[in-house]
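<instruction>
Derive structure tokens from the sequence
<data>
Labelled lines for chain and fold
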Amino acid sequence: MCLEAMPDHRRRHFVGAVSSDGSAGERFDLPMLGRHDDLVAVAERFGIEVFCVGIGSNHVREHVTAELIAAGLAAVEVVSPHAVVLPTAQLGEGCQLMPAAVVTSCASIGPGAIVNTNASVDHDSIVGPYVHIGPGAVLGGRVTVGARTLIGLGVRVLPGVTIGADVTVGAGAVVVNDVPDGATVMGVPARRRDRGVE
């Protein structure tokens, strides 16, 4: 998870990172500030007021974000300078848009959601809180994705499809029909692969 200071509204300056064991910052060329267990104390020590959680697990990202907001910190969006975001798109607090991500007209990205590298969210789509849109995934226009859902690498979602909350869409799937909450789908076309469901 990366913590950041905010010198102005347009640019973010990363102060450092924390992790579960206080290591691995060298991978990102960031100083390690401490452990997850010490998040609030670390923020106080370094005068950090805003943050963005870079944890892949949707549920854990939601939990840690809630903990920091409860401690009085503010979640801010992080948008790569190599992402494309049209002016009518809406970005929720703490969302992350990676390099080559594209969010087009009137699309909405929920709080804490990730639109990963080379993924695109087309017009009028709604991506719920703490969703992860995997690298290279494409959401057609007017798609709705529920909270904490994982859209896997290279997935294609046809226009107008609704995908529920806490869904897993396997890599490379093509979603042509609505998907209920909690389901796991995969394949072309995507079909349910929940335990006992074919």
Q: What stands out?
A: The chain has a mean pLDDT of 87.
